[in-house]
């Protein structure tokens, strides 16, 4: 099982964008031929006003919602992001 986890860490890239309107997760795998998107999740951003965090709990809920959608799509647990 350790080999599978190491392979996931070495070959998978997870990006997170927290925008004022939408929070987005993108999960990609790196191959010799390039990068393939295997999961995307987004959620309306809550807890942000004028580019500043106004409600951290609401923002965390938005992030968790987007993360769950991306994780479900790629069928992998997401525990690290760029």
Could you characterize the architecture of this molecule?
The structure is a single chain. The protein has 82 residues and is α+β, with helices and mostly antiparallel strands. The chain has one domain (2-74): ATPase, nucleotide binding domain (Nucleotidyltransferase, domain 5, 2-Layer Sandwich). It is 35% helix and 39% strand. The strands form two sheets. A three-stranded antiparallel sheet has the order 1-2-3. A two-stranded antiparallel ribbon has the order 4-5. It is elongated, with a radius of gyration of 14 Å. Residues 1-6 have low confidence and may be disordered.
Q: Which residue ranges are poorly predicted, with pLDDT under 50 across at least 5 consecutive positions?
A: 1-6
- Oligomeric composition of the shown chains: single chain
- The ordered string of helix (H) and strand (E) elements is HEEEEEH
CATH class: Alpha Beta
**CATH fold description:** Nucleotidyltransferase, domain 5
Mean pLDDT: 88
- Main β sheet profile: 3 strands, antiparallel
SS-derived structural category = alpha+beta
Helix content: 25-40%
Shape: elongated
Work out the radius of gyration: 14 Å
| CATH level-two architecture | 2-Layer Sandwich
Strand content: 35-45%
Q: What is the first-to-last residue Cα distance?
A: 24 Å
Strand order in the sheet with the most strands: 1-2-3
Number of helices: 2
* Whole-number total of structural domains: 1
């Amino acid at each position: 099982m350790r080999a599978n986890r190491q392979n996931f860490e070495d070959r998978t890239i997870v990006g997170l964008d927290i925008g004022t309107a939408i929070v987005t997760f993108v999960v990609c795998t790196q191959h010799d031929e390039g990068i393939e998107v295997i999961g995307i999740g987004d959620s309306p951003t809550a807890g942000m006003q004028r580019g500043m965090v106004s409600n951290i709990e609401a923002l965390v809920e938005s992030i968790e919602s987007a993360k769950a959608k991306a994780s479900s799509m790629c069928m992998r647990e997401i525990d690290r992001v760029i």
